[in-house]
Amino acid sequence: MKIVDAQIHLWGSGLPSNPSHWQVTSFIPQEAISLMDEADVHAAVIHPPSWDPGSVTMAHQAVQDYPGRFAIMGAVDLGAPDAAAQVASWRAVPGNLGLRYTCLTDPMRTWVADGTLDWLWAAAEEAGVPVSMLATDSLADFSRIAERYPGLRVTIDHLGGRGGTSQLRDHEAMAHMPELLALAKHPNVGVKATGAPGYSTEAYPFPIMQDYLKQIFEAFGPTRMFWGTDISKMPCNWSQCVTQFTEELDWLRGDDLTLVMGQAICDWWGWERG
């Protein structure tokens, strides 16, 4: 089984602006590879963080330096005059898989709701570029978007929650679950099961999260549920993030486990690792 982490951040300078991340001035590809090898994680998708202006360059260098180990979910400047053209050519750049945005605050949240970004969904659909969204307050909007753009592959981040931007924990952190599960009716919507340990006040194996993970699995199935860590925010190590799924979820076994732990995200985002 090839294990692929659907989300990590790497940076080479500056303290993370989000205090839930490790407060270190760098977490570079070499360090990530060492930790991944310890946990038997074969590959990871880099989401370049905004606080380091050099993070995109670092991500592309990592793709070159470690073939088959890294790919990228990045972003185009939505206000750039050539933004639509950048989307159209996005996957021509080695390592680029798709686009990822956070829309928990304005103006992004409003742009999703009022149709301002409809050009983006149309351009991404036409170019075959998947999008990944941190979108807790906009789940109903993405139902409309998924229906209007059926060829657009939408991934909802962090079990639909706010990830490390929230102080909510346990059941309060999962209050959005009905809205998330409602998106399962759209075959072009999937869910990153990233960062689950970070939502729990419990120690490993974070049992309060197991029912929520099962609900997502039962709604979306193994081809649309994707394991990952967001490791620099986790209260546990990479190995424990792996075994939370591979050893502690007795309902996740066999081919389903293989899909959730990496094969499905590679298929969903079109990553041919070789």
Structure description:
- There is one protein chain.
- Helix 1 packs parallel to helix 10 (238-246).
- This protein has helices at residues 29-39, 55-65, 83-88, 108-114, 118-127, 139-148, 170-173, 177-182, 210-220, 238-246, 254-269, and strands at 4-8, 43-46, 70-74, 96-102, 131-134, 154-156, 189-194, 225-228.
- An eight-stranded parallel beta sheet has the order 1-2-3-4-5-6-7-8, sandwiched between helices.
- It is 37% helix and 14% strand.
- It is built from eleven helices and eight strands.
- It is an alpha/beta fold and 274 residues long.
- The protein has a single domain (4-269), classed as TIM Barrel, CATH 3.20.20.140.
- The model has no long low-confidence stretch (mean pLDDT 97).
Task: Please outline the helices and strands.
Layout: E1 4-8, H1 29-39, E2 43-46, H2 55-65, E3 70-74, H3 83-88, E4 96-102, H4 108-114, H5 118-127, E5 131-134, H6 139-148, E6 154-156, H7 170-173, H8 177-182, E7 189-194, H9 210-220, E8 225-228, H10 238-246, H11 254-269
Parallel strand pairs: 1-2, 2-3, 3-4, 4-5, 5-6, 6-7, 7-8
Helix pairs in contact: 1-10
